[in-house]
Structures
1.
Amino acid sequence: MSTLLSADNVTVTFTGGTLGRRQVKHALDGVSLQIGEDPPAIIAIVGESGSGKTTLTRLLLGLMAPTGGRVSYRGKLLSEMDRAERLTYRREVQAIFQDPFAAYNPFYRVDRALLLPLQRFGLARNRDEAYERIREALTVVGLRPAETLGRYPHQLSGGQRQRVMIARALLLNPRIIIADEPASMVDASLRATILDTLYRLKTEKGISLIYVTHDLTTAYQIADHVLVMNSGKVVESGDPDSVILNPQHPYTKSLISAIPSVDPDVSWGLDDDARVTAHG
Ligand SMILES: Nc1ncnc2c1ncn2[C@@H]1O[C@H](COP(=O)(O)OP(=O)(O)OP(=O)(O)O)[C@@H](O)[C@H]1O
Ligand SMILES: [Mg+2]
């Protein structure tokens, strides 16, 4: 299996602090992750707030450089790519962010957000061909082109905006989509639709996904591989059954015990005193 995207032993250190006190923050501390060319896979990165998930995705997207370690695509360090290699990498590795509204210019119709990347990468010969590809991509993500095109971002629902972003990524024929909390700002039913869309991109289009989330439940549902992060380190890594059903690391166990149970017969781990306190 040849490797597409790879982070090897990456470290990110932020220095800051005030009043002469130099503070050093290790946002990432020796993290490695690989995505192979084939078969396509979904890797979930889970961990609490501040554990380093977004920092890791920013490295993988080339939005920042690691303090230590290496990030490479198709065997080439991001920092050493020539123009053509960088263009390929920029097209083949796409991002979807938590807040899709932030990706739009509110003064332009959503069409523009879809036309620009096609133009930038020279992927359509003319406007008609561009619109044809856009309609196709919108359909793949479950949107009706006629009800989506021509609208302004605020005229779409949060779930629709997020799916337009997925369509936008899809237009570029990516190999990998990196999605940082892609469904955390929409309600539960839309979350399921968005995750289902991303899952189908793997099975139907062969696109791998790096799925960043706080939510172990959805990670368990869609991932082939789960990576648990805590304080900038990967503390557990493996297939979802072993990581989530049979966690080894105390941190993973605590994350799992924090999932609210919907079964009234399953104890929440509160002892009687705590239960009395919790109920006043
Ligand atoms: N530009 C920065 N300057 C200083 N510290 C930073 C910077 N970016 C992130 N950090 C710190 O690095 C750590 C990891 O942040 P990161 O955003 O990667 O966490 P996260 O796992 O994505 O959290 P969340 O789930 O809240 O999105 C945090 O302690 C954060 O405060
Ligand atoms: Mg984050």
Note: The pocket of magnesium ion (ligand 2) is lined by residues 53-54, 180 (CB under 6 Å).
2.
Amino acid sequence: YTEKDIERIARHLRMKPADFEAKFLRVDEDNDKVLQNLPCFFLNDDNTCSIYDVRPKACREYPHTDRKKIYQINNLMIKNTIICPAAYEFVERIMKNLAK
Ligand code: SF4
């Protein structure tokens, strides 16, 4: 969660950003602000997003396959292949192209 994400989503939920952070986020080992628990608190029972219009930047960009400097997130992309078919296909195609 970026600071802009926090401000935007907190405003949407009519919360103060500090209260939003205290309730939903924690700081991880990379010093990033991430959700305290998974699955995401904002995931509805029908797999829709309850904050779709204001969702975090990372959710908007997922699985990040159009990123210009994709090499900057190699480790994340490999992790994503475990849960995302699009990320898996993306990495498969890169590997095939590298093998040519
Ligand atoms: S799109 Fe993002 S914020 Fe919305 S439910 Fe999924 S993980 Fe949560």
Note: The pocket of iron/sulfur cluster is lined by residues 40, 42-43, 49, 51, 55-56, 59 (CB under 6 Å).
3.
Amino acid sequence: MEVKQVRLIYFSPTGTTQKVLENIAKGMNCENIEHVNLTLPEGARQKIQTFSDELVIIGAPVYGGRLPADAINRFKQIKANKTMAIPIVVYGNREFEDALLELKNLAAELGFNPVADGAFIGEHSFATKDVPIANGRPDSLDIQKAIDFGAKIKEKITALKSCDAQMDLKIPGRFPYEGGVRSMVVSPVTREDICTVCGLCASVCPTEAISINGKVVTKTELCIRCSSCIKNCPTGARIWEDSAMKNIASWLNENCSIRKEPMLFGIDE
Ligand SMILES: Cc1cc2nc3c(=O)[nH]c(=O)nc-3n(C[C@H](O)[C@H](O)[C@H](O)COP(=O)(O)O)c2cc1C
Ligand code: SF4
Ligand code: SF4
């Protein structure tokens, strides 16, 4: 089969998942690449139809060893018709636990035919310069792995006779799924002394938790702790002040510093 069009469908608050998907697509060397970025609130309202003559790379970060609830809700709007898919999760160098299995199964329920899967590493959402956790990842080595993975997937698909050829992908994970994010009603705070009220934080928040009313106002109960507002703030005015969040980041920094490598399924490495 020929790959005529590649669609990247993703939920990616801090952009690492998006970067991995873009580089897998780059390795496929296909001219038609379309982005369907479901991260922002309008993503939750978007209905998507995919077709049997295209390839979809679908990706989300790992939250608590599972898929983020907002990613699942957005992906459930997709209708696929035997569309070949590459489910990808990106995690912050702790573990991906059941998330990749969950994404592969969800993709199959939506009508996709998963042909290969991958778990990549991205800078942890809770990482800072002072408390690094996989900072700078995906780095050049990860990017090269993503490109090579894309090239191998293309080879695999080119050898297939039809898009519904059954794949037997063994993905690690438990079913019923376990884990999930700890329920915590917390959100980043704004340092008003250095905030310029530019509004960028509000425009990148996936859950509309932030509004601007002369100053930054956060509805803490809507916050999913994605840290997009922090990583996108041009003046460094958005920060985690909550002591439990700071403790989690310190624990990750101390216990998850040994570099993990991407795990790829469905291709010969
Ligand atoms: C609420 C929350 C929970 C997370 N849970 C995990 C986890 O269980 N394991 C892990 O390694 N990383 C975890 N992370 C880190 C993200 O998976 C990682 O930073 C990822 O690269 C973010 O993807 P994005 O840049 O596409 O948003 C978590 C992040 C958040 C915000
Ligand atoms: S992005 Fe930063 S500087 Fe801009 S409004 Fe938000 S907190 Fe203030
Ligand atoms: S307020 Fe919460 S949900 Fe919104 S961008 Fe910031 S961390 Fe993410």
Note: DSSP finds seven helices and 13 strands in the chain.
